[in-house]
From TrEMBL:
InterPro entries: DUF6272. It comes from Taishania pollutisoli. This is Uncharacterized protein. It comes from the Bacteria.
Amino acid sequence: MIDIQKHINVSIDTIYQSYLSLYEKDLGFHVLLKYYGEFSVNLIRSFADGVEEIMIKLGDKRHVIKRMFSILVEGLQNIHLHGGLDDNGQQTAFLIVTHNNLGYKVLFGNIVEPEDRSSVKTYLGNINNHSDEELKQLYLSILKDGYLSQKGGAGLGIVTMRIKSSEDLQYRIYDLPSNKAFLVMEVELNKQ
């Protein structure tokens, strides 16, 4: 992941532009979709459908397209349900979908409220420490228990993204000037 000014008081725009530059120029990925701004529920289906159409044109296998669709929908719903608000009361976030010959990298970025920072970091770390079989059991356990958070989520989105990716979720949390934080999560999807 990228190190921006040691994660201290950077703007969301700086974070977004740095990741775009890293993937386009430094790592040689092709950007399929990029969005930076206020998120709404209407954007979720539009982005997922657009990426699906691009992947079909690129000749990707159906199972890879289905996994990507699932990752996108879960990641965007996660932003919609759990993303914090900026100083203007807007849910500012970003999405970057890139690819190369080996596969895809999907980057989700959203604001994290100060009181959620520690739990987000712990939760993502715990998800990465589970084996594939443990993740499947966790998924089934969450489904069985049917617990919903105050924001309406059951915690399945991150678990689903990790299962569909088959790779650890890479993430970094940056400090924003407003005492809030900004989470950037990278999900890798191989073309195999």
